[in-house]
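Why does residue order matter? Because the sequence determines the fold. Keep that principle in mind as you read this record.
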Amino acid sequence: MSKESKKLARELRKDKGLEKKMAAFDQQIQRLKQRETEVEQIMAQRSNPKNILAEIPKKIPKDLWIDEIIIKDKHNISLSGGAISYASLSSFIEKIRKLQYFSGNLVPKDTKTETIDYYGKKIRASVFTAEGKIVTFGEY
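Structure:
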């Protein structure tokens, strides 16, 4: 073999080593992309209601109370309670609907006026149930 041929053979061997390294690098990139996709899927399924439960009390007027909050099937919420004035109930529902968690889809399902015992006095109150879909649980 000539000197030039030997030089070319050495360079080809070096290139084969580089080819193997590049192939291994490409495989590593593919594994990382797959892991990234898996993490995104897991994050999309997370459903911790902590942020929602922290925000709801901030929107409650003084003459309104919550008796029960139920989160069903990860993305359905039901609130029930009462208010002394219908205006407070209406204001509360509107404020809750504007939260990013519900995107406007929380609606009253059942509202009626009942006579209740309020610190020893009989008063009329609006008793309600509101239901909606949770579109996000916010940042963790």
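The mean pLDDT is 85.
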